[in-house]
Amino acid sequence: MSLRFNYRKVNAPAFRAMMALEQHNAGRTSDKVLTELVKIRVSQLNGCAFCLDMHAKDLLKLGDYQDKLLLLCVWREAPIFKAKERALLELAETVTEISKAGVPQAVYDKVREHFSEEEFVDWIMNINTINSWNRIAISTGMYPGADL
Q1: Which of 54, 63, 109, 137 holds its CA 20 to 30 A away from the CA of 39?
Q2: Interhelix angle for 117-139 vs 12-26, to 10°?
Q3: Cβ(75)–Cβ(41) under 8 Å?
Q4: Comparing C-alpha atoms, which of 111, 69, 70, 105 is closest to residue 89?
């Protein structure tokens, strides 16, 4: 695997735009653990090793979440995940794979049991942002430990 180019240097305004979105998102959600779980799950689905590595490490810095990290790829079968986490992980999956079935009403309803409309938009923005980061990283050949 090799880095194709450092997009941060090649197109700094694009990088700054993504960082501005990331900073906006960071100020909108207070549950850092859930944010990292969503970023990790989306990165798993997209096959983004760079983002998966970064966010797994970020999650572990927040505390003892190794069990959740190890079971995240099978969250539906793991009782360690609470209803709120399950609802959001399902939303993250449906938005990431939106061409398959859109966002079904049942998924929306589950999320709304735990989050307001405003928070729903915040989570959609978070999910869209990590999907964008994944696509940038994969398209430019980023990998864990890449020298940026």
Answers
A1: 109
A2: 150
A3: yes
A4: 111
